[in-house]
Amino acid sequence: MPTTDRKGRKQILPAEALAAGWRTWVALLVAASGGLIAVLATQPTSVEPGSGGAGFAGSALIGLALAWLVLLGGVVLILRSYCFRALWDGRPVEPGSYLKGMYQVWGVLVVGALIAVLGAVLMQAVLPGVLVVIGALLLLIFARPSGKALGV
Q1: Which of 20, 45, 77, 89 falls 20 to 30 Å from 103 in CA-CA distance?
Q2: Could you read off the pLDDT of 36-60 as tens digits, one per residue?
Q3: Rounded CA gap, 84 and 90, in Å?
Q4: Residue 100: CA atoms inside 13 Å, Cβ hemisphere, count?
Q5: Can you say how many angstroms the Cα of residue 91 is from the centroid of all Cα atoms in its chain?
Q6: Plot region of 99 (φ>0 → left; ψ -120 to 50 → alpha; else → beta)
């Protein structure tokens, strides 16, 4: 078995890719969950948005987070399907391609969640920012690493 791929990079084994995926997924889950916990612990429980420019900026950031998750989430799923094209032929996905596809999905979800966290902090209100963060976290949990695509 060759030790480099077509581009001269060191090949990783499917089990190593799965382990790297789990490490990254857990770190991203902790980051997004930490943002959620920080908002819940520091913000007042009122649903009235903050006054002035900060409240408007927070509302705009929550809208941006929603647009980010919907638009880029759809695009990244298409890109992931391209990275997973070996599955279309019934073959396992190459480990590097698996990580590239899953990192894209997880990155979009976590960045969207953190934008919503920032929006909730600026609004000085828990809702609606926390709902966006919870939605992104649930999608992240459902997109956890799996060895099925790698043939592990």
Answers
A1: 89
A2: 999 999 877 555 555 667 788 889 9
A3: 11
A4: 14
A5: 26
A6: alpha
